[in-house]
């Protein structure tokens, strides 16, 4: 391409401009490293400055290496049509592909590492346990520094787990269980402390809620989380609205993060605008702080060098990319991460579920009859239009929501493979596949509801009281 500073720049999207600036910067560095002629370097630098000016004019923000505009991920699924691109940020997940987001491209865009067979085998050797089905099936598919966690564990050095929940409604749905099911398994096989953050302050800032209602949702969600079976002696659950005012260590870390992240950076990462309240702008530091053991002096005896492992959906990664960037500058270890795929809505994998749409998912409060009705009526099918066509051509498991849900909740690998083969061949009809899902989810949710009934306000209080856990540091 000719080095015409204005060559079609107006037609480029913010992300395309960002990529052009990045590429041009690399070109300038390569020319300087190769001791190219001065006029050639000068021309490349002029082009770089022009691109940066275009980027600022388009986005309203200065170019910063490694921080795409609004941290909005655009992944082209093999076409140049704008409607065929995936959009992922901490609040929005959209794709036009019925199979869902292209996670391989997301790994490349976010700069994380794929969880491969070697890593899964290493986890199995380290723990002596069969890998969780979420690992076996690629539901947790990406990581940052999990190899370092295993290095430490194999050398008898401890780490801790941190995950969270934004309590935006009283009832959680089955998709909300995914990080907690996996975190419970991690806690059991590694025998480590667990911190669970309830970001009721975030929901107050983003939603039309009072602080009292946000805190009430936090306590109600805590009951669902506790009902997953966490050990009270090894788990601390806290509400931001509650804990922040009681822990000097926690607030000190928030302030340290705040000092080392500029307003421009936080705008670049999260897409905040000048009209956003300052609470939103400062919130990422609050989500970052539990990544550091000194935020919990009562658990870690004031030690600052205990590494953290964060299991979460990959849309939360921007918070922790920021955290990992800040950590060395405030003398803290970088948190490691394990990323999960998104749990699909009943209507299909194009978007995340909405707590405000009761038909977008199966809720933990649903009755057996509601579960059956929702799946039969709303679960997107990969089957054919007629039984004759289905028998002849077979169904598509890649887009069938009932099969997707079974990959999350059906433990038996052989049974899952049998269902896949039978559905793909046309032997198994859509209604029959939905029946298998109904029979899988009904007892699972009924058992959860029974456990939740046993979670009293007093038990919630015990989990949420700052205290020493059953570990020595």
Automatic annotation (TrEMBL):
GO terms for molecular function: ATP binding; tryptophan-tRNA ligase activity. SUPFAM superfamilies: Nucleotidylyl transferase, S15/NS1 RNA-binding domain. Its EC number is 6.1.1.2. One of its GO terms (cellular component) is cytoplasm. SMART domains: WHEP-TRS. Residues 13-69 form the WHEP-TRS domain. GO terms for biological process: tryptophanyl-tRNA aminoacylation. Belongs to the class-I aminoacyl-tRNA synthetase family. PANTHER family: TRYPTOPHAN--TRNA LIGASE, CYTOPLASMIC (PTHR10055:SF1), TRYPTOPHANYL-TRNA SYNTHETASE (PTHR10055). This is Tryptophan--tRNA ligase, cytoplasmic.
């Amino acid at each position: 391409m000719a080095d015409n500073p204005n060559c079609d720049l107006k037609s480029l999207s913010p992300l395309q401009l960002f990529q052009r600036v990045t590429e041009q910067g690399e070109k300038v560095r390569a020319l300087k490293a190769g001791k190219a002629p001065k006029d050639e370097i000068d021309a490349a630098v002029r082009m770089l400055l022009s691109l940066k000016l275009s980027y600022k004019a388009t986005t309203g923000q200065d170019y910063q290496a490694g921080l795409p505009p609004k941290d909005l991920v655009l992944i082209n699924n093999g076409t140049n049509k704008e409607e065929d691109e995936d959009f992922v940020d901490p609040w929005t997940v959209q794709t036009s592909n019925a199979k869902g987001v292209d996670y391989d491209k997301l790994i490349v865009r976010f700069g994380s590492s794929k969880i491969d067979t070697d890593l899964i085998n290493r986890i199995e050797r380290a723990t002596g346990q069969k890998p969780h089905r979420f690992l076996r099936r690629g539901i947790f598919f990406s990581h940052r520094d999990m190899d370092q966690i295993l290095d430490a564990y194999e050398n008898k050095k401890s780490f801790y787990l941190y995950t969270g929940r934004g309590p935006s409604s009283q009832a959680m749905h089955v998709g909300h269980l995914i990080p907690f099911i996996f975190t419970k398994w991690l806690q059991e096989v590694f025998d480590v402390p667990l911190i669970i953050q309830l970001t009721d302050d975030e929901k107050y800032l983003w939603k039309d809620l009072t602080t009292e209602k946000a805190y009430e949702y936090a306590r109600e969600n805590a009951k669902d989380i506790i009902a997953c079976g966490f050990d009270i002696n090894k788990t601390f659950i806290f509400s931001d609205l509650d804990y922040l005012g009681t822990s000097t260590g926690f607030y000190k870390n928030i302030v340290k993060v705040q000092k080392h992240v500029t307003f421009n950076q936080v705008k670049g990462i999260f897409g905040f605008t000048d009209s956003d309240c300052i609470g939103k702008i400062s919130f990422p530091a609050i989500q970052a702080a539990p990544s550091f053991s000194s935020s919990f002096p009562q658990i870690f005896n004031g030690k600052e060098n205990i590494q953290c492992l964060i299991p979460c959906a990959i849309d939360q990664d921007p918070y922790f990319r920021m955290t990992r960037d800040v950590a060395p500058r405030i003398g803290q270890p970088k948190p490691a991460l394990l990323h999960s795929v998104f749990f699909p809505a009943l209507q299909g994998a194009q978007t995340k579920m909405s707590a405000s749409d009761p038909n977008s998912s199966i809720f933990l409060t649903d009755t057996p009859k509601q579960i059956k009705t929702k799946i039969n009526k709303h679960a997107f099918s990969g089957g054919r239009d007629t039984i004759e066509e289905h028998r002849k051509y077979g169904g598509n498991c890649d887009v069938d929501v009932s099969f997707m849900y079974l990959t999350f909740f059906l433990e038996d690998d052989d049974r899952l493979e049998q269902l896949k083969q039978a559905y793909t061949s046309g032997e198994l009809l859509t209604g029959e596949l939905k029946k298998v899902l109904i029979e899988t989810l009904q007892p699972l949710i009924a058992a959860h509801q029974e456990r939740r009934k046993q979670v009293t306000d007093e038990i919630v209080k015990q989990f949420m009281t700052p205290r020493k856990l059953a570990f020595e540091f």
